[in-house]
Amino acid sequence: MNKKRLSVVIIAKNEAELLADCLQSAQWADEIILLDSGSTDSTLQIAQQHDAKIFSHLEWLGYGKQRQIAQSHASGDYIFMIDADERITPELRTSIEQIVHSEVHHPEQVYSCPRRNYFLGRFMRHSGWYPDRVIRLYQNSLYRYNNNLVHESVDYGDAQVIPLNGDLLHLTCRDYFVFQRKQFNYAEGWATQSYQRGKRASMFSAVTHSAGAFFKTWLLRRGFMDGKHGFLLACINAQYTFNKYAALWAIHQQENISK
Q1: Which DSSP category does 7 fall into?
Q2: Residue 3, pLDDT score
């Protein structure tokens, strides 16, 4: 029986600060595919040093389509999608290899891993940030990411989701201001995508969804057990949610003015 191959796939732009450790954690894969969208720092040189296969696509079509393009360059039987601010732990590597090197391969299965998220000096244990399971391992010929501009995910249909062991480390928030700017960009992307799909929002819905986001993070997801970090994250989630719906409301207001 032919051995199955694994492609680790990354999309990146100006990730020089974080990329080396990410690539080092994936060095054991059969190939590493990096799709660059116009880096001006040393991202490409670092990728070359780690023997990644480098491709370029400068026209940004959203996260989902960018991941589809990146996957199209992969030759492995299995895909593991990773970001520059993530690291594969040894335990997760073992779990991935058990699937890829198994004698039996199930076309109706995809695989999720628990992601441990870093927030201002600590890895969170609650607040919806752990175990935060994400589907990252799947067969190349069968599945791909959806077309979402932001908050993209694997379009796996009716496939069974099998949990892997071992954490995927995610350096989510190392700098408060950088994180907040990224959150605002995500809110803008969400609002644009929702507008294109014909959705609407009121200022009342912005307030109620924001309150609900705080309640969910702080109480339902036990953010209070993460102490001050959990409280701050609950506030940020509420703020992000408000920005999403307020931005969607603003887009419609601008549309009405222009008529």
Answers
A1: E
A2: 87
